[in-house]
## 1
Amino acid sequence: MRKPFAITLDVGSSLANHTGTWRTQRPVYLDRLPPCNHACPAGENIQGWLYHAESGDYERAWRELVLNNPLPAVMGRVCYHPCESACNRGRLDAAVSIHAVERFLGDEALARGWRFDVGVPDSGRRVLVVGAGPSGLSAAYHLRRLGHAVTIQEAGPLPGGMMRFGIPKYRLPRDVLDAEVARIAAMGVEIRLNHRVDDLLAAMKAGGFDAVFLAVGAHVGRRAYLPAGDAARILDAVSVLRGMEGDERPQLGRRVLVYGGGNTALDVARTAKRLGAAEAIVVYRRTRERMPAHDSEVAEAMEEGVLFKWLSTIKQAGDASFTVEKMRLDDKGFPQPTGELETIEADSLVLALGQDVDLALLDGVPGLEIVDGVVEVDANMMTGHPGIFAGGDMVPSERTVTVAIGHGKKAARNVDAWLRGERYVPPEKHALAAFETLNTWYYTDAPQRVQPTLDAVRRQSTFDEVIGGLDESNALFEARRCLSCGNCFECDNCYGVCPDNAVVKLGPGRRFAFNHDYCKGCGLCAEECPCGAIAMVPETI
Amino acid sequence: MAMQPVKFYQTGTFTVGNRLLDESERSVQANMRRTNSLNSGHRACQGCGEALGARYAIDAAMRAAANRLVAANATGCLEVFSTPYPETSWQVPWIHSLFGNAAAVASGIAAAMRVKGRGDVRVIAQGGDGGTTDIGFGCLSGMFERNDDVLYICYDNEAYMNTGVQRSSATPPAARTATTAAAGPEPGNVFGTGKNLPLIAMAHGIPYVATASVANLRDLEAKVTRATGIQGARYIHIHVPCPLGWGSAPSDTIKVARAAVESGLFPLIEAELGEITDRVRIRRRVPVEDYLRLQKRFAHLFAPREDTARIALIQAIADRNIERFDLL
Ligand SMILES: Cc1cc2nc3c(=O)[nH]c(=O)nc-3n(C[C@H](O)[C@H](O)[C@H](O)COP(=O)(O)OP(=O)(O)OC[C@H]3O[C@@H](n4cnc5c(N)ncnc54)[C@H](O)[C@@H]3O)c2cc1C
Ligand SMILES: Cc1ncc(C[n+]2csc(CCOP(=O)(O)OP(=O)(O)O)c2C)c(N)n1
Ligand code: SF4
Ligand SMILES: [Mg+2]
């Protein structure tokens, strides 16, 4: 072939040489399961919604979030965020403040009036949900999204369950709760308040329901046997907290003892302080380390002046004084009495010793299995009675809002399948994106953003919200701290580092592909992928 | 400073691209329409640092020169793996002559362009460390001394790789090559030999000298871009690991290059008219061992016994670089 002067070789001629034949291993793109997602009891795709938040597309982020959890503004405030304990970034500097971004998105949605859509035609099936706590609300939301007609029957005068009658206002302002519940009701979920279900089978029959989801929670405060004088003022924690929602505030006095070591005990003590108690003292039989309450809540209570008496039990109650016995931990960590007694003056004693489930509505329902006061369910959230599902505090669980919401979702999917005579098969989980799969060189140092807190004076005298939200710039910053564990975030590293130009960039949002004609299988792309989204697999020859 | 670090966009300046950045702030390599000056089908080994470095550098130069560019290439792996007759991987005007005369060929092209009134065309000469620091050194020094309008890029893989890993004057102390066996009382390349070409280039007082690494793309692109815009003789020395010659895993090419930078063994500097103007600070300092252990050419430093004395000598080289170039 004739070529111009000094031109001997054609551009592109090397493409005839398919160097991909040298390969003994090939790269594959994969999505691994981020540890945050893995740890979330509500099954949120946290990495997925953070990804959209990072680009400032908050509505898309929120829509991705609410695919799994309809209460982000609530959740961003009260969830104990196991996601953050699992977050890989925690091993670099500090975990992503996932709850703070979630709260920002939740509040943003309320401020901008984003609404849920149903999107599928009505199925013609009717489902009864008993209880408008987080579990019931979550189930109703997901069932509605699947096209079913849902009625919630709620015994109380207002929806929310323990989110309203347990968790104090200073942690969860009621306008936030009201707005998120209203958004679920607006999907066409009927919430019948002041409608206690006393006989489940009768209620199902009367309403012509095809299936039921039970989520009545655990509301009966546990008592301890205490020899007590007539005038001793002994109350239980849930009643005190429920009383806070009524017109008349509970009278606790100037010196209040709270007995118990869980979050409820702390909520009562902090509430007592705000009601004007000069001293609120939490009495607990073990040590601080062994308290079931979360560390952050203990710290917050201490900041507000709540006092603690560790390794102590209450032996006896008099008129205005209580006898306390010192305990010591044995080798197994169990508290043992020491015989050392002490008298503490106090106007009242609040018992925060846990709650039991009121199962009266289930009398006469055949097939149910009740163990330790809670209802057993199978892996599909169904009780021993076909068509009756249950979740939240009334089934064996950790008893958190997040678990309750997760149960509601899972139950809804199973109810949906059951109504069609099928079994719900969850999609297979990806392998975990462990810290070791990341190449952390590529992540910039970025200190965690801190939420503002209310000043000390207002924390002791008002029920104003203690922890504030992040502003937009801080929420964006915080979202961008996410490492995107196990999921491509289009950093272009693979496209850049391939010496053979064998990675094809497909364009924004479309990720990348390998050109196997030229990929020699060196593995540089996999090694330099920051988030561990490429694996090398042996070629079969 | 050659490059403005991008702050807190999740991965900052360290990844190739960043979907959150404006297109204009992203690297050349992130661009879907980059030149791919060294295209697929070349015959470089798996994980070749030189192939990668050449595409990084020439793509950046192409963008900086608005695609008006001619490259002269010395004999060496880069020429042999890219252009086995009748194929070529080059997608830029490219000319090959000899092992030792790339600088002279480029000087000639620059002169021809000047005569033709094509001052817009930028000229690059490129070669390996052997072609640059040894056989081509006379031509190169002449190009510097005359201040010819050429950017010379040396891809330093620290030996004559194309002919089977013989020692060059850029081979580091203790490294095993085909001609510096890991045997005898002083195994590997002899301490106290070799030359530092970036410093020699600086001694010519030319307008621009820089070192770069395939482990720091943003810095490399910024330096090539800067150099392309300067008139006169310019020199960029790029550290490019060679999996075959160094005995490193093909997948570790960038990791090895990064360890060289982060240990202080390969300082990233910039100089103008003979004076150092900037350096890239070490981000996460590592001991030289982290670099040496990744490469079989240094295996005799660790087995059968750890040769702490010689490792300490290499650490001393890194420490001296850190002090001399203010790398922390
Ligand atoms: C003081 C306190 C603070 C807490 N703080 C937190 C926290 O910060 N974070 C967290 O994750 N978890 C917290 N929890 C736990 C959390 O509130 C519960 O795990 C969660 O609310 C359980 O949800 P649920 O839907 O199962 O039940 P509930 O929230 O208890 O809701 C059950 C609902 O069913 C209704 N109901 C009951 N019986 C009937 C009936 N027969 N007919 C009709 N309706 C009926 C009730 O009125 C109630 O509205 C706290 C709990 C308490 C007590
Ligand atoms: C005058 C002359 N001597 C020897 C050779 C053989 N030869 C070709 S490439 C090469 C080594 C190249 O080493 P380097 O410049 O470091 O490039 P690398 O292959 O390492 O990239 C040699 C010795 C030659 N082509 N010409
Ligand atoms: S860094 Fe992001 S994806 Fe990884 S665990 Fe934390 S929040 Fe989840
Ligand atoms: Mg060489």
Note: The radius of gyration of chain A is 28 Å.
## 2
Amino acid sequence: MFTLKRQTPGETAFGIVNGFLMLVICFLTLYPIWYVLVNAFNDGADAMRGGIYWWPRQFSLDSFGAVFRSQGIMTAMGVTVAKTLIGVPVHVLFTAMVAYAVSRRELIGRNIYMIIGTITMFFGGGLIPYYLLIRDLHMLDNFLVYIIPAAFSFFDLIIFLSFFREIPAGLEEAAKMDGANDFTIFFRVVIPVSMPVVVTIALFHGVYQWNDYFTGMIYMNNMDLQPIQTFLYRVVAQSSSNQMLGAMPSGVTQTVTSQSLKLATMVVTTAPIVCVYPFLQKYFVKGFMVGSIKG
Amino acid sequence: MKSDAQVKSPSLRTAADMGRGQKWLRRLYSQRYLQIMALLGVAWMVVFNYIPMYGIIIAFKEYDIIFPMSMAPWVGLDNFKEFLNDDMLLTVIKNTLGISLIKLIIGFPLPIVFALLLNEVRSVLFKKWTQTITYLPHFLSWVILGGILATWLSDVGVINKILLSLNVIDSPITYLAEPKYFWSIIIVSDIWKELGWSAIIYLAAISSVSPELYEAATIDGAGRFQKMRNITLPSIMGTITILFILAVGNVLNSNFDQILVLRNQLNADASTVIDYYVYQTGLIDNRFSYSTAVNLIKSVIALILLVGANFVTKRLNNNSLF
């Protein structure tokens, strides 16, 4: 605060304008999301008239009730929850395990393994060869397509690697003296002392699993196995209100429209992410720095 | 573990006359669990990264769904020649480069400016809240943001309501149905989603600048702007350079998630980028070989761009990715 005294009038003015600018940016970022929120909490038929900008005009939870009673939406939600709950531990443990192995300096072939991985960051086969691979692995219309192809990421491996290098060698050696093998050391020693990086990667992969619509759209014809994001993609991008109406549970009041059902589904889908993301902040700056600087 | 190794390897001889190969085998055996861990990862990469790379050979074949890949006849560079004569070639190049270059010119510097300005905010709490709010959209999927945009931009949406009441337009416009608005929608929504997030890395770089530099500058009578220009900006130049190299390497990668959500038949003239064309020819028209060829051209150019940008920045200011 003492620095305030030494500010020139120009600098004080800049501070005020700058603060105001930040407020405007925050408003512009949040308002479109707020708009969807208040409309979703409004009576659907009434919302059709428009003009709901700041607060619901006729507060109603009917659209949300319809979301939770809709068979189609709940099935898709279930797929999303399942792929996130299964995909995250698989991705984290598998990637961390490989990272731990290549973090050990005595590993024979370590440099070759790293080169094999680095190449994959700069070049890939592309959409069709990948699609054909998934087809040949019989993963089309198969829940495993959400899990196995997402089980590993060389980018995440690098983040793990930089963390594992910091683990004091003494910890592992002590475990070795006690007769533990490398698997045991990895699970009992390395993972427990690496919780910050494990949580970071888990949260990021969780967000990926939750938000990904492309996998479900390309590899799934079976509607019962499509995640909620793919379901919403079909509603939003293909403007298919038919799909939304098809998901409408029977016996719903006239006040729920396909638009209000869509907005309520968007809100329900997004709520978990909005609750989780502020807690990521303390983790991701570090991971972000490591990942991008090391390339 | 050790005694185990001795029993299984043929090591009844003494260590002295044991060959180098045997020593190597013993070392390998003692780290067998580690090797299993590493090789499982390599196996995954072989399957999910290298087999698709090998699959690129269908770009030089005429692959049909009926025959297995190995039986498809070779056609040399026919698929590549066909793309050069494709009616869509110019549209695809125009849209891919147009959108990416505008993103590079506007979208790349904005987070830097935002980070510099946010850094000037004195209140720690206000700063933290601004950060938390501005990176929220990064965590929402493009499907959700697309849904929000569609609501705003529809003929009965908020944008039309505002413009009609201000008499800027006479009748409502369906923005997503008109090619001429598509690029603007893409650029603005991309900034909305990524401004705060992209600024994080610059803010982290700024926070690692030694406070002593600022103190010394204050004693020398430097003002706020001088410090920003002469200390903060030069300190994050390395970060800016590396992110710029990556951005140039990404010029051909349109944000496919975003394009796919906002694109439709009506705005196709402005929204068909190379990634979409690969998707359309491949998975909608089932022209597997052709689509793979188009994607290969893209990958090779992208790699050249990345290496080129790296080379240029290395020459200019000694910062580089590799």
Note: Chain B touches chain A through 94 residues (CB under 8 Å).
